[in-house]
């Protein structure tokens, strides 16, 4: 009976090139997205002693070979000339720290946001301001009207600073209030964000693939037939 059967007779080695997208660089970059001065009136002034500003955090960017993602941010809220002088001192201190580091950053707030700086100098005297970080405008309106409102950070002082890991996208508001009866104040608000930038490239690699080689053989199978034969016995 005829039949066919594949039989292994060897191997073929095939060489080819493969492209793989790989991460080649990660870097952090600081960006000051806000440096604004606001006048906050006294509460006996005809103007309101409450004000606010809106913060728009940069959007994350994703493309084929590059991504930019906000990983943290830091803020500075200071009152008057005393605050400006303290921030200038912080700038000098930051430069001295940066000289001994492999990576540099552009401001005291950038150093704070990446964890290289843990403390900043603030004024020991001067006027103060009440501040609140507020998530939505509905609560901003309650803040402006002196009503109960929700916030995710607040405080009061001649200056304040801090690092934040959230929110990292979208918008929020900073409310400011002056509780001095007759003296208005000038408040400076700075915000620096830290972007983590990842760069990718296509890398080409030499590859090998081993394929088995077969041949088809024609064969015959022996067929055995059985018979029963009767034999006479004496």
Task: Report a brief summary of the structure.
It contains three helices and nine strands. By secondary structure, the chain is mainly β. The strands form two sheets. Strands 1, 3, 4, 7 and 9 form a five-stranded antiparallel β-sheet that branches. A four-stranded antiparallel β-sheet has the order 2-8-5-6, with helices on one face.
Main β-sheet: number of strands, strand sense, barrel status?
A: 5 strands, antiparallel
CATH fold label: Jelly Rolls
Ends distance: 41 Å
Oligomer: single chain
**What pattern of helices and strands is seen along the backbone?**
EEEEHHEHEEEE
Q: Give the radius of gyration.
A: 37 Å
- Assign the structural class, choosing from mainly alpha, mainly beta, alpha/beta, alpha+beta, or little secondary structure: mainly beta
What overall form do the CA principal axes indicate?
Answer: elongated
CATH class: Mainly Beta
Helical content (DSSP H or I, runs of 4+): 10-25%
Average of pLDDT: 89
Tell me the CATH architecture. Sandwich
β-strand amount: over 45%
Number of helices: 3
Count of strand segments? 9
pLDDT below 50 for ≥5 consecutive residues: which ranges?
none
Number of self-contained structural domains:
1
Q: Features of this protein?
A:
234 residues; mainly beta; Jelly Rolls; four-stranded antiparallel sheet; 3 helices; 52% strand
Task: Kindly describe this structure.
The chain has a single domain, classed as Sandwich (Jelly Rolls). Helices cover 15% and strands 52% of the residues. It has helices spanning 80-99, 108-114, 137-144; strands at residues 2-40, 50-56, 61-62, 66-79, 129-134, 153-157, 159-164, 171-177, 185-220. The strands form 2 sheets. Strands 1, 3, 4, 7 and 9 form a 5-stranded antiparallel β-sheet that branches. The protein has a 4-stranded antiparallel β-sheet with strand order 2-8-5-6, with helices on one face. A hairpin with a 3-residue loop joins strand 3 (61-62) and strand 4 (66-79).
